[in-house]
Amino acid sequence: MNLPKANLDRPVAVIGAGLVGAGWAIAFARAGLDVRIYDANPRTAENALPWAATQLEALHRHGLIDEAPATIAARLTLADSLAQAIDGAAYVQESVLERIDVKRQLLLDLDAVADARVIIGSSSSGIKASDFACDLRISPRVLIAHPVNPPYLVPVVELVPSTQTSAETVAFTDALMRGIGQSVVRVRKEIEGFVLNRLQAALLREAWALQRDGIASCEDIDKTVRDGLGWRWSFMGPFETIDLNAPGGVADYAARLGPLYHSIARSRTNDGPWDDELIARVERDRRQHLCADELAARRDWRDERLMAFAAERAKHAADS
Amino acid sequence: MNLPKANLDRPVAVIGAGLVGAGWAIAFARAGLDVRIYDANPRTAENALPWAATQLEALHRHGLIDEAPATIAARLTLADSLAQAIDGAAYVQESVLERIDVKRQLLLDLDAVADARVIIGSSSSGIKASDFACDLRISPRVLIAHPVNPPYLVPVVELVPSTQTSAETVAFTDALMRGIGQSVVRVRKEIEGFVLNRLQAALLREAWALQRDGIASCEDIDKTVRDGLGWRWSFMGPFETIDLNAPGGVADYAARLGPLYHSIARSRTNDGPWDDELIARVERDRRQHLCADELAARRDWRDERLMAFAAERAKHAADS
Lengths: 320, 320
Fold this sequence. Notes:
The structure is a homodimer of 320-residue chains.
Chain A: E1 12-15, H1 19-30, E2 35-38, H2 42-61, H3 69-73, E3 76-78, H4 82-86, E4 91-94, H5 100-113, E5 119-122, E6 142-147, E7 156-161, H6 167-179, E8 183-186, H7 196-212, H8 218-233, H9 237-243, H10 250-266, H11 276-287, H12 295-315
Parallel strand pairs in A: 1-2, 1-4, 2-3, 4-5, 5-6, 7-8
Antiparallel strand pairs in A: 6-7
Helix pairs in contact in A: 1-2, 9-10
Protein name (chains A, B): 3-hydroxyacyl-CoA dehydrogenase NAD-binding protein
Organism (chains A, B): Caballeronia insecticola
Keywords (chains A, B): Membrane, Oxidoreductase, Transmembrane, Transmembrane helix
């Protein structure tokens, strides 16, 4: 697989070395970048290295990296402090806990030590940058760069500027992300959940309501997507799917099916939150198909399937 | 690829020979069944045969059928009348126009000529069987069997009984559909749009609103799904995806992300229909990526990708 090489002569820093941060470290190192990893909990940072080594072996097995796993792993180094991690870095990927106060504190700390050039991307999956990254010296250089987990397998990344992010920051991060092989989505206005989790929320809202109302089981709803809807979405997305699904394209499709979809939308206007009873119900339904003690093994299965998917996708890269 | 052979000693009839009906004919014939095709417009029925021959060649090229295309095509015959099509048939797949009056009229015609054994599945993609199939002699033997197009490639089929459908009818159709290799979803209560189009409607509702509000372009929304969300959905579905996406499974996930999703749901409660202005806007956006005169070629590309997806899926069939 031919990966683009990022054109960057300075290292990047990954702050927060949980699954998301460590996954980012692989994505950067795979593209040839030196990566410094820092976590406020030293044990978390230390664990990231053997975990990354294991993932790199799996990527190699699936033909998803050309270099030896050890060559890529050698680009990962642990930093003893935040200041050391970002010293001279071109870019910082922040992947600390998804909580406004935690992210705000990290931004305050970065503001105290960052040089005037570094760009900071946040892995926030739904909290807007304007809620935690404004009114600082570094604010023009901060934006959201939200991945799907794990970012070294699933390529999409949403770039969402805050109200104070500069155009140069967006352009730099866009180029960097394309440079390491990610698929960049430009979100033009801030909105809670951005695009990815809003789309997921919409599908889940309906899925949970169908299960709650006894229309279908979790397994049958999953089957509807994995053996049906999900096929075209996985290589075209929803707009292209419907554009090709009526003789005259998307406007023709809207004329035919718009009334049905509007009627369905009107039937979902006042759902409450997922309450404890509903969560327990869905939990029981899922546990009929997968015991709690099989979750970890099934996650390994998922990652193998994602790698097979990525390898298959790479074959079609020229054909899209 | 090993296809199951349907255990049925009588032919099936396909009524309505447009894309959906002709696609069903391939799915039945591929499994070894004799198929009689009838359309009120004889030209439509005649066109179905060469079209099916072309599709069978493509399936053969992708390793999706073991028999020679001509062997399978030889199981397709045209019927001169509705009565001739269903005479002695075990099962009728109705794929006429998606309009209550048209479907009701067909059911009245079938009621007049059907024998006491035939089971009738309707390809209706959103209209409930109770809206057109009740209070007839054949009503206990009618249900919805809604496919994704084309049914010989994408395996899911939703079975939705009307209030008058017998349990035997559901059991027979479930066994038949499994017998020809479809993935059966049992919808337990009638609801407009069933499961598949309700899930699609939910995603499209959000997608159109994001485009309308200037948050992201059609292309960026498609990218979010095809390079992100769609990967896991294409082999796991939405419930298994979230069940594996938190250490403690789906209940743990709901505790973490339920509040975000509820907040997003509350922000989508009063959308109007897709009006002409919005449809024109989406149409313009899509046409920047695909000219209207390229739609047909892009549909061929889609079908090739679906066949490659089906071939890849077959490899993982034992591994799910």
